[in-house]
Amino acid sequence: MTLLDAARAVRENAYVPYSNFKVGAALRDASGAVFTGCNVENVAYPEGTCAEAGAIAAMCAAGAREIAELVVVADSPMPVTPCGGCRQKIAEFAGPDVVVTMATMDGEARTMRVADLLPGAFGAAHMDRS
Ligand code: THU
After folding, report:
1. Could you tell me if the CB of 89 is within 6 A of ligand 1?
2. N or C: which end of the chain has fewer CB within 10 A?
């Protein structure tokens, strides 16, 4: 199964009563293991938890810490891009050259490097004097 197939499959489990916008994400870690996530909304915070954050949480819960590749998919008119918060979360666990693929359900896809998704990212080096 490709990462795109895994993202499309987990997207079906999205819990989206407020937006009705299902998103699926799948990542491969440095060891080759695949982790998936879907968006999960709630009444108090209708934006809920993004699919990418879910996949990252699953990776961390398994003890892994390094994203090698990530795919996100939604039924959107153009490839869905990770929100700002997710860009920071992805940058926490992925090097600048890691490729993020953004896809639609009808097969359109676009890829971007992590460094291009979050230029000028805040990082641990900024705290070197602290
Ligand atoms: N969403 C994601 O899961 N990932 C993205 O990259 C963009 C947005 C979700 C959050 C919320 O459940 C819904 O899409 C609308 O914002």
Report:
1. no
2. C
- The residue contributing the CA closest to ligand 1 atom 16 is 47
Closest CA to 36 of 86, 65, 71: 71
Nearest of 2, 4, 46, 50 to residue 23 by alpha carbon: 50
d(CA 93, CA 36): 15
The 10s digit of each residue's pLDDT in 9-19 is 999 999 999 99
Tell me the domains of the chain and their CATH numbers. Answer: 3-125 (3.40.140.10)
* Separation of CA 103 from chain center: 12
Residue 11, sorted as left (phi over 0), alpha (psi -120 to 50) or beta, turns out to be alpha
What is the best residue among 23, 78, 86, 102 to mutate for testing ligand 1's pocket, by most ligand atoms within 8 Å of CB?
A: 23
Residue 92 falls in the annotated catalytic set = no
